[in-house]
Amino acid sequence: MRGRLTGGCHCGGVRFAYAGELGGAQGAVTLCWCADCRRAQGFAAAVAPAEATGFEVTQGADLICEYESSPGKRRAFCRACGSPLYSRRDDRPEGLRLRLGALDQTPESLAIEAQIHTAARPAWAAEACEAPAYPGTEPGR
């Protein structure tokens, strides 16, 4: 999926635009059930790999905080409202993993392609979608 998208945080302090491919050659659009994502998001994290060069903060760059949740992995969020925006890895500066909930409109053509870390999915969480499920990361990542 390629196009120009906009998004931001819950309080409206952070706004961004994205022009580039989501998923595809960047990797699978995933729903992650790991404990870190559940703690950071409040539920599983729906993310789409994106090109860092296509991502532009259009408002509120000073409100974006990054937290190193594991060595070399940083989760970005709004310091005012706590909304998750994206994550990035130090060893992959060319890519981001945009949080789908931060997009103003999710393209209809975008679909979850893999559920990952399903071994960590809690008993209270029902099967979220019909995408293939993997106990760890998806094959090829």
Automatic annotation (TrEMBL):
MF GO annotations: carbon-sulfur lyase activity; metal ion binding
Keyword Protein biosynthesis annotated: no
Keywords: Lyase, Metal-binding, Zinc
Pfam families linked to this entry: GFA
CENP-V/GFA domain mapped to chain residues: 5-125
InterPro entries from the UniProt entry: CENP-V/GFA (IPR006913), Mss4-like_sf (IPR011057)
Signal peptide range in chain numbering: none
Family: Belongs to the Gfa family.
Designated name of the protein: GFA family protein
The species this protein was found in: Phenylobacterium montanum
